[in-house]
Amino acid sequence: MKIEIRIAELGDIPDIVDHDVRHKDEPGFNGTLAHPFLPGHPWDAEEMRNNKLVSFSKDITEEGWQRVFVIEADGEILGTLNLKNLFHGTLHRAQLGMGLEAPLRGQGLGKQLLDYAINWAKSEDSLLWIDLSVFAHNTPARKLYTNAGFVELAVLEDRLRVGHHRIDDVLMALKLK
């Protein structure tokens, strides 16, 4: 399998959305929930593509920007890491979201993707922090982020309720500079 890790381009948006939709229906670590959505949640792929087009087109000094880093395996996007801005007051911070489809997990590719994105963020003068939240039960992801230098700031008990699942969420941050 030929693997490439790179920053996404505008032309990748349809493939990124296809990955997002596939990945959101996959189970997470040990068959647990990986997303705050029930399997089969209806997704509006056209709206997702349009939102990404707008956020990709913004400079990182503008509110609402987003950059996506991809893992492409044999020409198909099977993993993504998103860095994005939530609102104007947080332009010095990026919010991280990451997802690898099941065939890519456990091969060290998540670490490579995370390292690639962190190095990109460090090269951007305006970014000082990367923030994320991760389900408390997702121990492999928590270990990955901790090993990359993220610090656990808080655990929000019972943060999410998805179906009959109560999910604790861990907030983490990485100081870039």
From TrEMBL:
UniProt superkingdom: Bacteria
Positions of transmembrane segments: none
Domain N-acetyltransferase: 3-177
Alphabetical list of InterPro entries matching this protein: Acyl_CoA_acyltransferase, Bact_Acetyltransf, GNAT_dom
Gene3D superfamilies in UniProt: 3.40.630.30
Keyword line: Acyltransferase, Transferase
Pfam families xrefs: Acetyltransf_1
Protein name: GNAT family N-acetyltransferase
